């Protein structure tokens, strides 16, 4: 798909998944007559315009393109999408400290669950398509890092110790007669492999 900063509607329909897959280009020219007559490729007319379906496994790709153009990476796509002149700071992998870890995957799954549930509730109130598209893996990782940094600030050793130790004023658990009898009986049982 050819991307331009001028065509905002096309630019706003993009997402990071397709950009990472290399599906957005700049200055790509297609041979439409060849695609129309080809049995491997298709031109489909839609209300938004022409949709081009190209079989990437076909051996005639050199005839499909007049010019392949340049693939637009996700960071450049994000840079095109913003309306202001402030550049989005992007760090290269080499610029991060070696001991920097990604957030726990379980934390990201929990965040994804609650955010998707919240977005699901909001669908009846308005168009949330853009919000759903923006909740990709990059946003989840950023949110996970933010929550982990909050946890590091808020949970000190003292607060963690509060949840890990028992206090004298904690209520004791009372077992019923059946539970206490089975507990005593289980303690008396010796297993064959024990000596």
What do these coordinates show?
The protein has ten helices and six strands. By secondary structure, it is mainly alpha-helical. It has two domains: 8-83, no CATH class; 102-195, no CATH class. A two-stranded antiparallel sheet has the order 1-6. The chain has a two-stranded antiparallel ribbon with strand order 2-5. Helix 6 crosses helix 8. The chain is elongated. The N and C termini lie far apart (72 Å). The model is unreliable at 183-195 (pLDDT under 50).
Task: Please name the defining characteristics of this protein.
single chain; 195 residues; mainly alpha; two-stranded antiparallel sheet; two-stranded antiparallel ribbon; 10 helices; 6 strands; 46% helix; disordered C terminus; Rrn10
Adjacency order of strands in the biggest sheet: 1-6
**What count of helical segments does DSSP give?**
10
Strand content: 5-15%
Tell me the number of strands: 6
Distance linking N and C termini: 72 Å
Listing every helix as H and every strand as E from the N terminus to the C terminus, the arrangement reads HHEEHEEHEEHHHHHH
Mean pLDDT: 71
Q: Which regions have little confidence, pLDDT < 50, spanning 5+ residues?
A: 183-195
Structural category: mainly alpha
Helix content: 40-55%
Gross morphology is: elongated
Radius of gyration: 29 Å
Biggest sheet layout: 2 strands, antiparallel
User: How many discrete domains?
Assistant: 2
InterPro entries: Rrn10, Rrn10_Saccharomycetes
GO molecular function: RNA polymerase I cis-regulatory region sequence-specific DNA binding
Protein name: RNA polymerase I-specific transcription initiation factor RRN10
Region (Disordered): 174-195
């Amino acid at each position: 798909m050819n991307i331009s900063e001028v065509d905002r509607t096309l630019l706003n329909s993009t997402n990071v998944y397709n950009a990472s897959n290399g599906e957005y280009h700049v200055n790509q020219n297609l041979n439409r007559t060849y695609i129309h007559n080809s049995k491997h490729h298709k031109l489909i007319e839609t209300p938004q315009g022409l949709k081009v379906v190209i079989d990437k496994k076909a051996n005639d790709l050199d005839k499909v393109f007049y010019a392949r153009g340049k693939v637009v990476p996700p960071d450049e796509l994000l840079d095109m999408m913003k309306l202001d002149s402030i550049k989005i700071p992007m760090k290269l992998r080499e610029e991060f400290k070696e001991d920097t870890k990604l957030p726990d995957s379980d934390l990201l799954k929990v965040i994804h669950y609650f955010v998707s549930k919240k977005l699901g509730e909001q669908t009846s109130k308005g168009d949330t398509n853009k919000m759903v598209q923006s909740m990709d893996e990059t946003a989840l990782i950023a949110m996970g890092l933010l929550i982990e940094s909050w946890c590091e600030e808020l949970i000190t050793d003292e607060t963690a110790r509060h949840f890990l130790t028992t206090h004298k004023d904690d209520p004791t658990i009372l077992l019923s007669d059946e539970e206490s009898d089975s507990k005593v009986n289980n303690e008396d049982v010796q297993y064959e492999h024990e000596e």
